[in-house]
Amino acid sequence: MNRPLFPLQDQLKGFSRALFSTWLYHKRFNILFDCGEGVATSLQNSVFGIRRIFLSHGHADHIAGLVNLLNIRNLGAGDQTAPLKIYYPNNNKLLEFMIDYLTRTQKDLSFQLTWIPIEANQKIELEDQKGDICIQTFETKHSQKQPSLGFNIIETRRKLKPAYTDLCQKELNKIILEKGKDEIAENYPKTIFSFAGDSRPVNPFDVKDSLFLCHESTYLTKEDDERNFQQHSFLEEVINTAKEANVETLLLIHTSLRYNLDIIYSAINEIKNKSDISFKILILYGDNFIDTDCPLLRKKNYRLKNLDE
């Protein structure tokens, strides 16, 4: 039996390459983050499982897959009546152009399609999910000409109240019997997944204690941004952001085509050697999820298992 490379291995599928295409599908929540070219081709009939799409911004490499995805859901061999909600940054002109185009060309859809503009610091409930799950948006800094957003999946969890943490189970059971579970436990929000799209390093506070942060690392060094666009992040500042945010796993996405895996590994190891890093670092290299802690992966890429299996 093959062990997962990381806890979310059987829940994630995606593709990311700077300038070309970026998207990430989280099967557990039926959510697609961004919709770059090739989504429908890769997911095939799994596109019918998508119930929500969250778009970080309107650049072509993050939305070009919308046209084919809607077409496949309308005509393909699957549940053609399943509704789809697409959330996008409010007042994003590029996305408004795309919405207008799709509205004009996709008039006879077999399913309900809803476009929902959203703002930073907005909470979106996921009523169809088991448990108390929501999406919390946060502002990202990418292009000065258009707004962009990041997204946290937040789960409401339970923990012992501080006053009862030193009691043994027998004592806790007695209190529960007398006063109920709510007497000893309280709810708290836990960020279990974060997607930052394309951006400069996000505010660590926005992804604090996230179990899994997806963050772009277009460049390995600041000097590699020759045109000085200052719209993307470089490796060391992303790792520092993840460290300050106290994340458990960092997934690097949107790496430039100029770097092969050996170059990326060397850059990561150089930073590891001079910094205390306690979290796991993964790379979405094309459509392969690479665990940088596994030496075998330096010679062979491992794909996620097929979501239909």
In a nutshell, what does this entry contain?
This protein is of the alpha/beta class. It is built from seven helices and 14 strands.
Q: Could you characterize the architecture of this molecule?
A:
With 309 residues, the chain is of the alpha/beta class. Helix content is 22%, strand content 27%. The protein has seven helices and 14 strands. The two termini are 14 Å apart.
Descriptors:
309 residues; alpha/beta; 8-stranded mixed β-sheet; 6-stranded mixed β-sheet; 14 strands; 22% helix; globular; disordered C terminus
List unreliable stretches of 5+ residues: 297-309
Q: How much of the polypeptide forms β-strand, as a percent range? A: 25-35%
Helix content: 10-25%
The assembly state of the depicted protein chains is: single chain
Which helices and strands, and how do they pair?
Layout: E1 12-17, E2 21-26, E3 31-33, H1 39-43, E4 52-54, H2 60-63, H3 66-75, E5 84-89, H4 93-105, E6 113-118, E7 123-125, E8 133-140, E9 148-160, H5 169-179, E10 185-195, E11 213-216, H6 235-245, E12 249-253, H7 261-274, E13 280-285, E14 288-291
Parallel strand pairs: 3-4, 4-5, 5-6, 10-11, 11-12, 12-13
Antiparallel strand pairs: 1-2, 2-3, 7-8, 8-9, 9-10, 13-14
